[in-house]
Automatic annotation (TrEMBL):
Gene name in the database record: artJ
Subcellular location field: Periplasm
Acetylation in keyword set: no
Superkingdom per UniProt: Bacteria
Keyword flag Transport: yes
Gene3D superfamilies linked to this entry: Periplasmic binding protein-like II (3.40.190.10)
Residues spanning the signal sequence: 1-21
Domain Solute-binding protein family 3/N-terminal: 25-245
Pfam families membership: SBP_bac_3
Protein name: Arginine ABC transporter substrate-binding protein
Length: 245
């Protein structure tokens, strides 16, 4: 009987400890293939602008950040399965996504652009019937589907795959976030932006935000409060300048 009591006491402590640990941690789903927002270092650590923002939020809340790597199009389904608590992965606020998740206040506004091999196209009209690469499950994919109906859309799980195919001629153009495209252009001067920035508010005008389950109102309030604080005290600006200046 004593052994049973001891076992039950230890089990109770363990369960309590796990509950405390969970409350003390925010598990973020992310797609770490999207520099400079989120990517893996050579050592395999997740880093980037979004990750620094999440780390600052966790520091403000005195919690630990844990990152769960996923393909972009599986992030919302796995959040709904509660495999993590929130998503931070350069995710645009859209009406369609708001049917499934609730978004924090936006933490970044980012225009989109087309990139192609230098000298190949003079304007957007030149590739409306060509092959356009996009990241699967993104607002970029939706924008091309609805605005470039004659194009042959090629969907990719990660942007490095799309850019590699662009460089070897498997696609004619890649459409993505301006700062992400800029990273690839820095590495290959044979790439260039074609046309103007795309800021269509129906797809991109609401900014990037952190997603949580609609019922998780407490976590949403904590994240919004921490975001407000890091913007007010200068931590956000320091992170921004680290990645974009």
């Amino acid at each position: 009987m004593k052994k049973l009591k001891v076992f039950l006491t230890l089990a109770s402590l363990c369960v309590g400890g796990m509950a405390f640990a969970k409350e003390d941690t925010i598990r973020f789903g992310t797609n770490p293939e999207y520099p400079p927002f989120e990517f893996k270092t050579e050592a395999g650590e997740v880093t980037g602008f979004d990750i620094d923002i999440a780390n600052a939020i966790c520091a403000e809340l005195q919690k630990k950040c844990v990152y769960v790597a996923q393909s972009f199009d599986s992030l919302i389904p796995n959040l709904r399965l509660k495999r993590f608590d929130a998503i931070i992965s350069s995710m645009d606020i859209t009406e369609e996504r708001q049917k499934h998740v609730t978004f924090s206040e936006p933490y970044y506004l980012n225009p989109s652009v087309f990139v192609a091999m230098a000298g190949q196209f003079k304007s957007v009209d030149d590739f409306k019937t060509k092959e356009i690469g996009v990241l699967n499950g993104t607002t970029h994919q939706q924008y091309i589907k609805e605005n470039f109906k004659e194009a042959n859309i090629k969907n990719y799980p990660q942007y490095p795959n799309a850019m590699s195919d662009l460089e070897i001629g498997r696609v004619n153009v890649v459409f993505g976030d301006e700062v992400v495209v800029a990273e690839f252009i820095k590495r290959n001067n044979k790439l260039e932006v074609v046309g103007e920035q795309v800021n269509d508010p129906e797809y991109f005008g609401n900014g990037l935000a952190i997603a949580v389950l609609p019922k998780n109102t407490e976590l949403l309030a904590e994240i919004n409060g921490a975001l407000k604080k890091i913007k007010e005290d200068g931590r956000y600006q320091t992170i921004y300048e680290k990645w974009f200046k």
